Amino acid sequence: MAKILMKGNEAIAEAAIKAGCVNYFCYPITPQNEVGEYMARRLPEVGGAFLQGESEVAVGNMLFGAASTGQRVFTTSSSPGISLMQESISYMAGAHLPVVIVNIMRGGPGLGGILPAQSDYFQATKGGGHGDYRLLVLAPSTIQEAVDLMMLSFHLAEKYRNPVMIIGDGMIGQMMEPVEFPEHHEEPELPSNDLWAITGAKGREPRVIKSLFLDPKLLDDNSWNLYDKYARMEREEIRFESYRIKPKNKILIVSYGTMARICQTAIDELEKDGVSVGLFRPITLFPFPSKQIAKEAKKKNIENVLVIEMSTAQMKEDVDLAVLGAKPVKFYGETGGLVPSPDAVKEQIMKLIKNPNDELKRR
Amino acid sequence: MNEDARTLFSRPESLNEVVTHYCPGCTHGVIHRLVAEVLDELGVRENTVGVAPVGCSVFIYKYLGTDFLEAPHGRAPALATGFKRLRPDMMVFTYQGDGDLASIGMGEIVHAANRGEKITTIFVNNAVYGMTGGQMAPTTMPGQVTTTSPGGRNVNDTGYPIRVAELLSALVTPNYIERVAVHTPQHIIKAKQAIRKAFTYQKEGRCFSLVEVLSTCPTNWGKTTEESLDWVESRMVPYFPLGCYKDPETAEVPDGAV
Ligand SMILES: Cc1ncc(C[n+]2csc(CCOP(=O)(O)OP(=O)(O)O)c2C)c(N)n1
Ligand code: SF4
């Protein structure tokens, strides 16, 4: 299939349809409104269900009901809306339901702003709602990757029967880029959902999808079953990309999403000036590629690990935990909708090369 | 045995043969039975999914023989919407208390009703939060003593009980809305008819349907079973008048098209 020029939000919508998901529930919020508008046009064409709900609280719970049918379903929203979905996300995780939730992040806390940010890292990777659960979290850095991850996400949600969250900063939603959709979409086979989906108690015992376990032993079992799934994700799903990582590098940058792409531009330009710096880009934020980061950070010539984010050092905590003091972990970031330029990134890198003991913190 | 012997009364197939956890004198069980009878009569048990609320009836999935989803507090109509939109061929009903539906879940029920979701809601109004120990509900009667209105509900401070059937009937969407009670055999027969009508309308794909059922909570009302049944008649029925508030057969729908 030829490449077509598409806005990120629309590409995400089309990717879901191409992956066989024709059910979508939403509530308007900038900067992801194009997804709902696209779906309102497209889903009637392909015979799917489109509904604009009355709030993100309701939309999350509509997803809960819809996923119980065993069919694919997803929603998109942005930071404040994702906060309202936390109730249903916790319930769906507890009830082992496969859904896909896309967060096109804007700056926060509170109403924050509408410009791109990466400030929902904690919310996405550390739970967000109540209880012992995690989401499988994917972070694309280009629109093509958003398409690819979107198409993969439904399979992952079903493989683990767990909500999958895709987090992209506002740029992923708003940018236009050439994208290519695969001619044929194939997925590894999974056990049939006949064993759990709600289809009516015909010829079988009635079934309940629930997260209530008043017996503490059963709740303990459920929580450890969830834990085992997350441990399996850690074994099978870690995804990351290394860019220009070489033995002679003194600095290892860790960055994700659009921010990582800006870092690549800075790294390319420095390379031309004879300065070599490598980038480690986590694609799965949960499970987090801790071991892989540690391995790179511990290499002999690395003097500093530099985390760059559009937040006030959220992912840095995971990098700190990965590196465990083996090397200093420095941070540079801007947030609230300010996006560090390649020049700003270059400047920070050069500072650190000149004075490896410098503490970089903020804009 | 008399050769004319016929079974006049038996356990509906849709009602599981288990002991419920309800308190003595609680009418949740009566309402469950009516729903089960209707599911049997319409022959839809195997094609139905119920959505359980958070409240005393959270375990309804143990008592009725249909598939079930267990919703977060108040969100049953949103789950039912999501399910029904993907499976319009199945019967979907919610069963909700007054704290669940008229307080935390008011948004979800109003919008599900306004969209005319083809689902059925059994709304159990017992004027109190049962499960959490008898706190004031949006339907608590003026002057009624609860654990969080120890001096009796003060309407100057907390407003008047919400009349859900009337409130939802104010929506233009042509739904079926009726209020019934289950404190006497006659009322139980009428309640059954309303529940049957509600499920029938859904089966025909016609409209959203809600039956508000005035119910008892002897435990949290601090009353005996008999006193509770009397209290429904003397206190609740005058404030929550019984009857059909909206029926798609007779509802007038303005043409507001632009
Ligand atoms: C989000 C949330 N808030 C509060 C509760 C606690 N809670 C459980 S049941 C209930 C009230 C139920 O009362 P009602 O809906 O009137 O049903 P009843 O028990 O009287 O049948 C509450 C507040 C909860 N489970 N979830
Ligand atoms: S607390 Fe009230 S509503 Fe709950 S089971 Fe007992 S009597 Fe019924």
Describe the structure.
The complex is a heterodimer of chains A (363) and B (258). By secondary structure, chain A is α/β, with parallel strands linked by helices. Chain A folds into 2 domains: 4-236, Thiamin diphosphate (ThDP)-binding fold, Pyr/PP domains (Rossmann fold, 3-Layer(aba) Sandwich); 241-354, Rossmann fold (3-Layer(aba) Sandwich). In chain A, 40% of the residues lie in helices and 18% in strands. Chain A has helices spanning 8-18, 33-46, 56-67, 79-84, 86-94, 121-125, 143-160, 170-174, 216-236, 257-272, 290-297, 315-323, 342-354; strands spanning 4-7, 23-26, 49-52, 74-77, 100-105, 136-138, 164-169, 176-179, 208-209, 240-243, 251-254, 278-282, 284-286, 304-309, 329-333. In chain A, the strands form 4 sheets. Chain A has a 5-stranded mixed β-sheet, sandwiched between helices. The longest helix of chain A is centred in the middle third of the chain and has 21 residues, at 216-236. Chain A is globular and about 70 Å long. By secondary structure, chain B is α/β, with parallel strands linked by helices. Chain B has helices at residues 28-42, 60-63, 76-86, 98-104, 106-115, 155-158, 164-169, 185-203, 218-221, 225-239, and strands spanning 48-52, 67-70, 91-97, 120-125, 176-181, 209-214, 243-246. In chain B, strands 2-1-3-4-6-5-7 form a 7-stranded mixed β-sheet, with helices on both faces. In chain B, strand 5 (176-181), helix 8 (185-203) and strand 6 (209-214) form a beta-alpha-beta unit. Chain B is globular, with a radius of gyration of 18 Å. The termini of chain B are far apart. The model of chain B has no long low-confidence stretch (mean pLDDT 97). Chains A and B meet through helix 3, helix 5 and strand 9 of A and strand 1, strand 2, helix 3 and helix 5 of B. Bound molecules: thiamine diphosphate and iron/sulfur cluster (SF4). Thiamine diphosphate (TPP) binds next to helix 4 of chain B.
